[in-house]
């Protein structure tokens, strides 16, 4: 499986974090879980701390602990995403907004909160759906664990919280989703207008 698009998704999302009007590489002191991502080369701004992305510090044991709690293995492509880089935030390059922050200790709590407390379990977790990202402001994307293929990948389902019993297939798997987002983004850059996927 080619993981280049997963890395590009993260890299493009990080590159778009800073604009002339706003520097997104700051996070509230209350959100800092440790000093691993703190950017000590830049000044603090009030109660805001500068941060910088780093190579992933997430351990296999953390991933295994999450899998044990949700009772399903994560897809290999999503594990590649977890093990690429850590960050507090990503700039949106599509309508897919990954759960953040993705930092040691905190990412697992965020995932579990969304799996077990963020959405009605009877429509998602109890049906084998594992949330991993928001879709714009009206739905979420889930791994459909009922569709596991020979490579350990799941179909991606888009769920609209206003149509609770409807499940739309959104991508064949996580790697295909990342590829579609990156290709759409790159085409938008070439054409001078990015229309979110």
Which structural traits does this protein have?
single chain; 197 residues; alpha+beta; SMI1/KNR4-like; 5-stranded antiparallel β-sheet; two-stranded antiparallel sheet; 5 helices; 9 strands; 30% helix
Please identify the top-level CATH class. Answer: Alpha Beta
General shape: globular
Termini separation: 22 Å
Secondary-structure element string: HEEEHHEEHEEEEH
Tell me the count of domains.
Answer: 1
CATH second-level architecture? 3-Layer(aba) Sandwich
Largest sheet: number of strands, sense, barrel closure? 5 strands, antiparallel
How would you characterize this protein structure?
With 197 residues, this protein is an alpha+beta fold. The protein has one domain: SMI1/KNR4-like (3-Layer(aba) Sandwich), CATH 3.40.1580.10. The chain is 30% helix and 19% strand. It contains 5 helices and 9 strands; from the N terminus they run αβββααββαββββα. It has helices at residues 4-15, 60-70, 76-82, 106-116, 174-191; strands spanning 26-28, 48-50, 54-55, 85-86, 96-98, 129-135, 139-144, 155-160, 167-171. A 5-stranded antiparallel β-sheet has the order 5-6-7-8-9. The chain has a two-stranded antiparallel sheet with strand order 1-2. Strands 3-4 form a two-stranded antiparallel ribbon. It comes from Pontibacter cellulosilyticus. InterPro entries: Knr4/Smi1-like_dom (IPR018958), Knr4/Smi1-like_sf (IPR037883). It holds the Pfam family SMI1_KNR4.
Question: Secondary structure elements and their pairing?
Answer:
Elements: H1 4-15, E1 26-28, E2 48-50, E3 54-55, H2 60-70, H3 76-82, E4 85-86, E5 96-98, H4 106-116, E6 129-135, E7 139-144, E8 155-160, E9 167-171, H5 174-191
Antiparallel strand pairs: 1-2, 3-4, 5-6, 6-7, 7-8, 8-9
Helix pairs in contact: 1-5, 2-4
């Amino acid at each position: 499986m080619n993981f280049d698009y997963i890395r590009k998704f993260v890299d493009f999302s990080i590159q778009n974090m800073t604009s002339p009007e706003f520097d997104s590489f700051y996070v509230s002191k209350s959100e800092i879980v440790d000093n691993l991502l703190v950017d000590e080369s830049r000044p603090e701004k009030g109660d805001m701390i500068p941060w910088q992305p780093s190579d992933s510090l997430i351990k296999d044991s953390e991933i295994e602990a999450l899998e044990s709690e949700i009772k399903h293995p994560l897809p290999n492509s999503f594990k590649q995403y977890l093990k690429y880089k850590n960050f507090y935030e990503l700039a949106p390059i599509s309508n897919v907004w990954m759960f953040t922050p993705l930092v040691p200790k905190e990412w697992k709590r965020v995932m579990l909160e969304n799996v077990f407390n963020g959405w009605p379990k009877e429509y998602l977790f109890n049906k084998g759906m594992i949330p991993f990202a928001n879709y714009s402001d009206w739905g979420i994307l889930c791994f459909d664990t009922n569709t596991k293929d020979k490579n350990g990948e799941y179909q991606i389902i888009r769920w609209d919280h206003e149509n609770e019993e409807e499940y739309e297939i959104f991508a064949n798997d996580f790697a295909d989703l990342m590829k579609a987002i990156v290709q759409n983004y790159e085409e938008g850059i070439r054409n001078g207008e990015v229309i979110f996927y």
